[in-house]
Design a protein that fits this description.
The chain is mainly β. Helix content is about 0%, strand content about 50%. The strands form seven sheets. A six-stranded antiparallel β-sheet has the order 3-4-7-12-9-10, with no helix packed on it. Strands 1-2-14-8-11 form a five-stranded antiparallel β-sheet, with no helix packed on it. Strands 16-17-18-20-19 form a five-stranded mixed beta barrel.
């Protein structure tokens, strides 16, 4: 897939270079996986492939014909030639049976130089728009894989600055219209007085931003717009619609940027008051649900809707024994049996049960407005954890062999 033919569309316009990686006579990729770095050339341009795990090799069909280059996984790179013209756009095609999950981005040094693309299938291909700061002639662009998947390349097209084809996208007049598109569709979304109702940045560097307009709500996932909670957004933005395990998402498209957006600070977002029977209509929205909190086999519910601490809000984080991993304390326990209100984001989860697709709805907690239930009034006392951590009178953790006054399961006693 790393074959290269220099093609010039005339002498006075549209400089374009096309690399056909299916031409094995040109590129001579290895037949078996190679885990060491290697350089391949068509006589004019050279590519450097570095894929330590599991390596890289030629991809062939059942007839033994070359389908291009296959390589991976996380951290693997292809270093592109330094072109003597400013590169604005790069299109990369894969194969019809290629991974739909592989994540790739162009880098210059440690800086992201393009949008991120997911999947390597030929039917849609990947379009990378090189950021303005990296569109200079002689720039060293490196395509990096950042997921645990193999990548495939059958052809590459390089577009000179100013000569790249204009990308025309379908238009969605609001969030509801955007969510009516087929998954993987790239479209221009119009936002009118849309508000950011919540944002969660994970420890893995991902972001989930929940945005609501008058027509509905959607999760912006790793879209790169850096939106903040309570902001009001107006204007248009190019995004890719997708559905992840039943939850609608707006992801980055090659042309995603905030150039046509007006973003202002807004008042604190208000949750929509709903009943548990309404949750399917409010996926990704900030809601408030009233009822009694129940605990069933370690899970927590209001009616049949599960509530959980997906966003790792500190006030509701469980405490676990460092040695055994058992839960010592779950802050939700004190609310069990109490009536009040849960505020959070509705999420959908689709799974297969007996060959049928089933969607359940859950509330990711942001706040619990239920008066704590007095533990003394509980009919059955909570069982003590025999493996709970043990502390001395100074609050220092000690082992079972420590002699003297200790604290365990919230009680003091003499350990002899």
């Amino acid at each position: 897939m790393l074959f290269a033919m220099a093609m010039f569309c005339g002498t006075t316009f549209a400089q374009e270079v096309t690399f056909d990686f299916t031409n094995q006579e040109t590129w001579n990729f290895p037949a078996d996986y190679v885990t060491t770095e290697a350089t391949y050339t068509d006589g004019t341009y050279s590519f450097k492939v570095n894929a330590p795990d599991p390596g890289h090799k030629v991809r062939t069909n059942k007839s033994g014909e070359s389908m291009g280059l296959i390589y991976g996984k996380n951290g693997s790179t292809i270093t592109f030639p330094k072109f003597d013209f400013a590169v604005e756009r790069i299109d990369i095609m894969g194969n019809s049976d290629a991974s739909g999950k592989v994540v790739t981005t162009f880098y210059v040094g440690e800086e992201e130089a393009s949008n991120t693309c997911t999947g390597a299938k030929a039917e849609d291909g990947n379009t990378y728009i090189i950021k303005d700061a990296f569109q200079k002639a002689g720039t060293q662009l490196v395509l990096k894989t950042t997921s645990a998947d193999n990548n495939q390349i059958s052809s590459i097209k390089i577009y000179k600055k100013g000569d790249a084809p204009v990308i025309e996208l379908p238009k969605a007049e609001n969030i509801a219209a955007f969510m009516a598109l087929d998954p993987k569709t790239k479209a221009t979304l119009t936002l009118t007085d849309a508000q950011v109702v919540y944002r969660w940045d994970t420890d893995q560097g991902n972001s989930q931003t929940f945005v609501r307009d008058a027509s509905g709500a959607i999760q912006f996932y790793n879209e790169g717009l850096d939106l903040k909670v309570n902001q009001i957004v107006n204007g248009t933005v190019d995004l890719t619609f997708d559905i992840f395990k039943g939850t609608p998402e707006a992801c980055e498209a090659p042309t995603t940027n905030a150039d046509n957006l007006t973003i202002t600070d807004g008042e604190e977002a208000e949750p929509v008051e709903i009943s548990t029977s309404d949750v399917a209509d409010y996926v990704n929205d900030l809601v408030a649900i009233e009822g009694e909190l129940e605990e069933i086999d370690g899970s927590y519910f209001i009616d049949d809707v599960q509530v959980y601490n997906k966003f790792h809000v500190d006030a509701y984080e469980v405490e676990k024994d460092e040695e055994t991993g058992e839960i010592i304390n779950n802050p939700l326990d004190k609310y069990v049996g109490g009536e009040g209100k849960i505020i959070g984001i509705v999420s959908a989860f689709t799974k297969t049960v007996d060959e049928n697709t089933v969607t359940t709805y859950e509330i990711a907690i942001i706040d619990v407005q239920i008066e704590a239930v007095n533990a003394i009034s509980s009919i059955e006392a909570k069982k003590e954890n025999k493996n709970a951590a043990m502390y001395n009178a100074a609050g220092q953790r000690v082992n079972k062999n420590f002699k003297g006054m200790v604290i365990m399961n919230g009680k003091k006693f003499m350990n002899k």
